[in-house]
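User: Can you model how WT7 sits in this protein?
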Amino acid sequence: MTQPTIESILQENRTFAPPAEFSQAATIGSMEQYRELYDKAKADPAAFWAELAATELDWFQKWDQVLDWQPPHGQWFVGGKLNISYNCLDRHLTTWRKNKAALIWEGEPGESVTLTYAQLHREVCKMANVFKSLGVKKGDRVGIYMPMIPEAAIAMLACARIGAPHSVVFGGFSAEALKTRLIDAEAKLVVTADGGYRKDKTIPLKPAVDAALAHDGVPSVENVLVVQRTHEKITMEPGRDHWWHDLKAGASAVCPAEPMDSEDLLFILYTSGTTGNPKGVVHTTAGYNLYTHMTCKWTLDLKDTDVYWCTADVGWITGHSYIVYGPLSNGATSLMYEGVPRPSNPGCFWDVIEKYGVTIFYTAPTAIRAFIKLGEHLPNARDLSSLRLLGTVGEPINPEAWMWYHKVIGGERCPIIDTWWQTETGGFMLTPLPGATPTKPGSATLPFPGILADVVDLEGNPVKDGEGGYLVITHPWPSMLRTVYGDDDRFRRTYWEHIQPKEGQHFYFAGDGARRDADGYFWVMGRVDDVINVSGHRLGTMEIESALVSHPAVAEAAVVGRTDDLKGEDVFAFVTLEGDYTGSDALINELKQHVAKEIGAIARPGDIRFTDVLPKTRSGKIMRRLLRNLASGQEIAGDTSTLEDRSVLDKLRGGA
Ligand code: WT7
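Assistant: Here's the modeled complex, given as structure tokens:
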């Protein structure tokens, strides 16, 4: 399978109208209805969101001001009080949903647990009380480093319940990466598990926490709460480490939800950027609650009869917004699966869909490409007729993969929502509404009502249809990131200063390039900065370079993305060695391993090439464009006149 080129994507003109049956039952069932909402929101965004906030969320106290916009800082529903855990749990307990499945979970080894809203509420209250007994107070940060088990969602909701912002760190990140994030967030408590299951193996988690905290590595951490999952032997440090099942036994199931200010910090989630350490993206309570709620309702078209499954990990924003908060705020049934396709069961996803009668399935293009490779016979051997809606997220989807998804998984009857958004946006920004929007394979189509998006040049002027430009959001929205934790300067620099529009205008710069076609449809082309997207995961080239340079053999490193059939992009590293070292296969493996240890397996370079020199400009900047060409085996394209030493190119080619 080949990756889409700009040319192939622009030639894509197949259009798929929403099936009539789907539209009839959908919450938003026609383009007229979408346009009406979009226009209404555009005319008066504050009034639009205020009306929804009043009808869709429960409040302890109503707000005084809908939007306080002091660019680039937006505050929403100022003066209001609410609690997202209350909106996700308590308010459903007074309805028939009390005994409805909130979470359906299946572990990789095959066990399964269903928690009704009443049961989930009890678990969350108990964990919240345990947090309190460990000295966690409103405003204290809690690190969550967990496998995909119900306790991960329970811990998040328990944090929200007592107003302790969480910072979930993906369980695939290394001890080093965990440590950096816990230090930045100054976490007081870490919630973890002994380990988890992945690809028929156990993944140790508690040992990584031990390594991160060793030698007072994260001075702010006072306690560690450990969920027993794999029953493997781990060490428990007396006074610091506590088993969840021990403390739970004595915990009360009564814990009223703390009234939180609309703008109180709900969570920090770290994501990679162009420079420096990962950024702590800050989300606050009310706007995030409202936006994830509305996008679930209109884009996922969530209904009480749905069994909805998002295959992401709770360690990413997709898991936060579309496994936990958005679906539960709607009173939906959200399925959580610990496993991934693996040699012992490559068709496990189709088993899960058949077993639970999944109706809405949301996954990533990289997963779809892997399914294609594994073969149609796997999904064809299962009954997937319960499915009514499919979704994708994480990277541009190539039209071929879209068509396969549509035919083989969707049986040509399920609309596909290609949702473009980011950790920073909190929720879907560009997306079809499945009962309304005709879809085109490879396009995330149109903005969600209330979102004003554009494709512009560096001065903020809209570019012509079909021309490339920068994707921007031109008006604040409820779930926008509020700042970068502890670094507001970086927030301004990264998102608000790249595009310099006219006086008085402030455009959020997403870091993606895009085009718009004659129908106004957006086609997201990928990152325009030094961020690579490996299997839908964002990695900063500089982070990987720093990891490489921290190895004694490495003098200098330059990392670029290389097109990969399965992962979308793969990490390709050019490395110059310190004098006493010579390149070898053994050293390549050692360096790959080193990066995995420093960051996590997702960052492990696919390829490393040793070189004597790196191509640099006269001012000493590494010319990544040239390296990208070399990595993909392409001819060097474009201008090389700024290259300081032209013989470098021949040397690099020679080493190919
Ligand atoms: C970046 C954000 C949002 C959850 C997953 C990733 C890319 C995301 C799409 C899409 C084209 C997409 C962008 C974006 N991206 N969805 N549907 N089409 N590109 O969140 O780690 O914050 O990454 O993922 O490049 O900027 P994230």
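A couple of observations from the model: The chain has a mean pLDDT of 95. The CA atoms of residues 131 and 262 lie 22 Å apart.
User: Helpful, thanks.
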